Amino acid sequence: MIVVEDLHKHFGGFHAVDGASLEIAKGSITGLIGPNGAGKTTLFNVIAGVLQPTSGRVTMDGEDITGLPPHELFHKGLLRTFQIAHEFSTMTCRENLMMVPANQSGESLWNTWFGRKRIADEERALRAKADEVLEFLTISHIADLKAGEISGGQKKLLELGRTMMVDAKIVFLDEVGAGVNRTLLYTIADAIKRLNEERGYTFVVIEHDMEFIGRLCDPVICMAEGKKLAEGTLDEIKANEQVIEAYLGTGLKNKDKLEQA
Q: What are phi and psi of 209, to 5 degrees?
């Protein structure tokens, strides 16, 4: 679905992404791991159009999407969430979801005067869709709460819900488990799995929690120094000497530390 070919992103003399090449299969939940500074988030940002690549190529379903801005990728079904959730804090959770779909009739001044029925019909449909999403994610009880008042884990679920308000094909999740308690983390994992199995979403997940990765992801890609180091099941990755060296610099004798990372 996504093919990355010899991708580079340089910041002056620093090569954050340095010749990365990888493929994301349609219908997969792919884990992306690696030590701090490996280039994972920069890779996400380049694929998702947040940053322009220095060189290289990204294709989606055979179409060259290299360097396209986020709003164009959004319309193609490629969405990206962030480690720190980006909610509208003074709006309710339901309203946050209703804001997502583009080209709503209410955005046109003409329609506010002459298309009020159309706007009302759209808002009813959007409200129903938002309520369906909140129920799917088991957070209907926060529908009328201000988004700035909910917990970090609930904000991550709300971000996931925003991807459900449009026809997402592939979603890039950046440290979805950061700052989330264990109970909500399992809720997030279950929601991702259901979206993958029931609605055909493809996911790519950056995460440091190996239990979370093991619960969801196959395959797992390990990055180091701006490029792909290894790919396989989590067990294969854990047993890979190069991966252990990248994390620990000390070889297999400290393998158990990677398993606890």
A: -80, 105
Distance, in Å, from the CA atom of 123 to the CA atom of 200, rounded to the nearest integer, reads 26
Beta pairing class for 202-206 and 220-224: unpaired
Q: What is the CATH number of domain 2-85+166-259?
A: 3.40.50.300
Q: What share of the chain is helix, strand, coil (3-state, %, to 5)?
A: 45, 25, 30
Q: Of all helices (H) and strands (E), which one includes residue 122? A: helix 116-136
Question: Which parts of the chain sit beneath pLDDT 50?
Answer: 110, 114, 250-254, 257
Tokens read off for 123: 């808002």
Q: By C-alpha distance, which of 73, 85, 14, 76 is closest to 45?
A: 73
- Domain range list for the chain: 2-85+166-259, 88-147
- Residue 98 CA to residue 86 CA, distance in Å, equals 15
Residue 245, exposed/middle/buried by CB under 10 A (0-12, 13-18, 19+)?
middle
**Any bridge partners for residue 55, and if so which?**
8
8-37 pLDDT, tens digit per residue, is 999 999 999 999 999 999 999 999 999 989
What the block records as the tokens of 139 is 């957070």
197 contacts 228 by C-beta, under 8 angstroms: no
Q: Containing H/E element for 155?
A: helix 152-164
The pTM of the full predicted model, rounded to 2 decimals, is: 0.84
Q: How far apart are the first and last CA of the chain?
A: 30
124 Cβ neighbours under 8 A, 6+ residues apart: none
Among residues 155, 174, 193, the alpha carbon closest in space to that of 33 is found at 174
